[in-house]
Amino acid sequence: MSGSSVIFIGGRSGAGKSTVAFALHDLLSQRDVQHAVIEGDCLDLAHPAPWEYHLAERNLAAMWENYRDLGYRRLIYTNTVSILQVPALTEAMGDAREVTSVLLRAGHSTVAERLGRREHGDSLERHVQRSTTMAARLDRSAGDDVHRLDTDAMTPLAVAEHIVDLSGWAGTSRRAD
């Protein structure tokens, strides 16, 4: 494989991004497919938020360089808006040739139930409202090249299997070619 392959997983809070990334990691590990997972939310998690300095992209570039030096060529990247930032994120990677973008979607009741596992009281209400607003933005702004998956009735493993099929990683060998 010349260059790298990346799966960007985006979606509203509660759609299942992190859970699906972990299921995807488990599935690929069982198949002995070499890959890395980066949780994009952690690349610039600070207060005050340093977004104007493009810290997420800078940190992604540094991390991916380290993975590449070790021979990795497949990346799973999760972040709410990653599907809207594909050009900047692939530029930060420096060598992404194959890109699969997936928008995970979930209905209001599913999201409220999922977020209720980690948020409570006023915090839960705020997170659900922000998630609802973000869902509308993502649906409206995501391009036609973004695969949309409704996760309400799917297990994380079923979503992961679908994403593997979309990415073409299903029959890949352990090491990058």
TrEMBL record:
Which InterPro entries does this UniProt record tie to the protein? APS_kinase_dom, P-loop_NTPase
User: Which SUPFAM superfamilies does this one have?
Assistant: P-loop containing nucleoside triphosphate hydrolases
Q: What is its EC number?
A: 2.7.1.25
Keywords from UniProt, A to Z, are:
Kinase, Transferase
Q: What is the lineage of its organism?
A: Bacteria, Bacillati, Actinomycetota, Actinomycetes, Propionibacteriales
What GO terms are given for molecular function? Answer: adenylylsulfate kinase activity
Task: Give the protein's recorded name.
Answer: Adenylyl-sulfate kinase
EC supergroup of this enzyme? transferase
